[in-house]
Write a structure and sequence with these properties.
Layout (H helix, E strand, L loop, with lengths): L19 E8 L2 H11 L3 H4 L1 H5 L10 H15 L11 E7 L8 E13 L6 E11 L5 E12 L10
Antiparallel strand pairs: 1-3, 2-5, 3-4, 4-5
């Protein structure tokens, strides 16, 4: 289900509990996998294609943290408001369900689990989302629950004549 408003005009009220949004594609290249892993997660099944063939994965795979970064890019480009995002207190239940391999094309499916107005700050609310990263074979490769603080839509200004 698409949002009714573009990301440039999306506020707390646009995140409706139960809505499911699917979007984006981002490719994963072997060079990117190796470069990320050499800097941040230097395990041989991420950094050395030959050694990775002898690993339990049978070949090169992306670091889970690389996958999380790719998820964040899609999340920011397509889901999280560009005008009303006020940060995040964190996330829970990060799971890497399947390896991400060179040549994979990833997309997101995001379910709005909760949208709760703030009791102490009436200009905002907390949106809890369940994020699924899906590969080109429709397999879920990563899941994550995240909370974002989103501003409410400002009141419309009256038209002066």
């Amino acid at each position: 289900m698409p949002f009714l408003r573009p990301i440039s005009n999306r506020y707390f009220e646009d995140y409706v509990e139960g809505d499911v949004h699917s979007f984006g594609t981002i490719g994963v290249g072997a060079d990117e996998i190796v470069a990320f892993a050499k800097q941040f997660d230097p395990q041989t099944f991420h950094t050395d294609p030959e050694a990775a063939k002898r690993s339990p994965f049978g070949g090169l795979i992306a670091s889970g943290w690389h996958t999380a970064g790719l998820m964040t890019r899609l999340f920011m480009d397509h889901y999280l408001s560009k005008v009303a995002s006020l940060g995040s207190p964190g996330g829970d239940e990060l799971r890497w369900a399947k390896p991400v391999r060179p040549g994979d094309i990833l997309s997101l499916r995001v379910t709005v689990l909760k949208a709760v107005p703030s009791k102490s700050k009436p200009d905002r609310g907390a949106v809890t989302s369940f994020v699924e990263v899906i590969n080109q074979d429709s397999e879920v490769v990563m899941t994550f629950k995240v909370v974002n603080i989103i501003a409410k839509r400002p009141p419309a200004r009256s038209q002066e004549t």
